[in-house]
Amino acid sequence: MSPTNTLTSAGAYSEGAYAPKVDQRGDGPVTIRLTDQERISGVTRLETVQQCLYHYHRDGFVVLENAIDDDTVDALYKKIVEDTGVYVGKKFQQWNQGEATRNVSVVPPLTPEWLRREFYANVHTMRVIENILGPKPELRFINSNVAMPGATGRQAVHSDVNHDFPTIPFGIVVNTYLQDSDEQNGVTEVWAGTHNAYGRDEQQSSKESGWIKKEYIQKQAKIKAPLQPRLRKGSICLRDLRLWHAGMPNRSEQHRIMLAIDYFAAWYQCPMRLTLPAAARAEIENWNISTAGVDWAEGEVDYLNQPFYLNMTQDPGMYIKQTEKGVEDWRARVTGVYEFDKAIATEQNWWTPEA
């Protein structure tokens, strides 16, 4: 387990329950700010853990602020901006839901100097995750999402999982924002509480996309409207993989970058794997996480020539991969027909407020 203390220093008791006192703001999603003492010491107060768990289970989403120092964040931001210029235009590169979104997945630098625990297994983040998924959660996916300037389109409201997923928490994506983010530069639209509100077949318009039916979008907005939270640089967002969300256009002049790190419960037996350099193995295996999903490569990992690969299911045969011919998914493997993703979101795929 990650470091924690056993003392409570604030809050009050009511009818046998303890009500923690933490620095938090917002309501669905909620941002909880770590104290400087927590960040510097690496020790998470139990009050912080309790509040994170409460809001995560309620909303399917919670934000930790002040978990990483600014200089560390700035350095990685600059590196990924440089790498994005190299990656965009490769034959296998594809835009997420069309070029109008200017939204692209770029693998962050997978070298020992850049594989820092603050980003990939932050002690405060892991303290919360291991209380949701169980001990030694499995690291299975490392990527980043870059919203480039000049976007004219947005994504459809969707869930990242469109298979027959469990009705209990099984996977969490950790999104760390590398710059201050809000509506102007395309912070993600979040639909708090949708992680366990509806069944897959009930809510999703297609088993191939995870896009949400218009009628359910309109219905859910009356219960809890979507929100683009204002996030400070270095904020770490924990999102249930079942939660509805949507990438939004970046109308600023700078790249909006967030890391995307996936952890899964061991019992889920996710078959997805990632490759990391063997030179970083000793350090990473000291992070108190499971590396059952990691393949260790001798020498450098050519991370900018890795096509996008994903499999959040429990079936090894259900992976998807970008290729120069198009998307390789289970349909392409059966028919031999590869197609690039041509799906474009319209008003039928997002919330339109009713008069």
UniProtKB/TrEMBL annotation:
Gene3D superfamilies per record: q2cbj1_9rhob like domain
Stored SUPFAM superfamilies: Clavaminate synthase-like (SSF51197)
Domain of life: Eukaryota
Stretch forming the signal peptide: none
InterPro entries found in the cross-reference section: Fungal_Metabolite_Diox (IPR051961), Phytyl_CoA_dOase-like (IPR008775)
UniProt-listed PANTHER family: PHYTANOYL-COA DIOXYGENASE FAMILY PROTEIN (AFU_ORTHOLOGUE AFUA_2G03330) (PTHR37563)
Protein name: Phytanoyl-CoA dioxygenase
High-level lineage: Eukaryota, Fungi, Dikarya, Ascomycota, Pezizomycotina
